[in-house]
């Protein structure tokens, strides 16, 4: 059945993150998916996945297919992305807006460091100019003396290219070796970014993929490594921590013949891949073996504000102290 697009762009009504994650899931399955495929792969709620697929199908001329088992499949052409961009003005300007936002955030980040370095240059240039206006004899005496503390600043003009790099944060997170001085200033003042950014999205992706890999039936203990399980009395069985998963993926509890509580997710059992294999209950396991399995637990990364070494941190603090000292001296000289 072909879905005829209406007069308005339905995809523009979707939240940006929902649309992006749904489209990535569609691409990963080759353009032939069920609601359960998108929900588990993208970590979206079932209603979010359904709304996204309906909007994408309406705007790109997608088709619905009904399998012999009664499952509804959404089928998209290979060029559905280009069709969507051609119709949506929002998608055309979205990359430009995102780039403009990144540039604006970058300008705000570097303004402090720029002002600090400029302040030091201006302050000490002014101090030198004032001292130079004194007697020539004093100036020659000062120029004749030298002092070697054994301390090296290691500042090079090429460091300024790092300082004015809009992709500093991306480059900073990829670097594992030592940093130069300008990088240390950035890291000390602004930090290295949150390593757990977008972690909830990854959590739901792992949970959805794990449920699918087990044929849509799991126990609470299997999902516990992915969830925040509150401490409870060992004598009590409390599986309330799985309720958010049931709500998100439309699951329901079930009891097997041995009296064990199982959680069944019918929507995640309906996959486009099962139509090819003909045996839906084994699709998840075969998929997990094909990709090497799903991560067995969910782990947050330790957030360290700045990864600069102690020596680099001391240099940055010294730079700030040097600026403060220069301002005090200059203020005294101008009185």
TrEMBL record:
Membrane spanning residue stretches: 106-131, 314-334
GO CC annotation: chloroplast envelope
The keyword Protein transport belongs to this UniProt entry's keyword annotation: no
InterPro entries: At5g03900-like
Keywords: Membrane, Transmembrane, Transmembrane helix
Signal peptide: none
Name the UniProt record assigns to this protein: Iron-sulfur cluster biosynthesis family protein
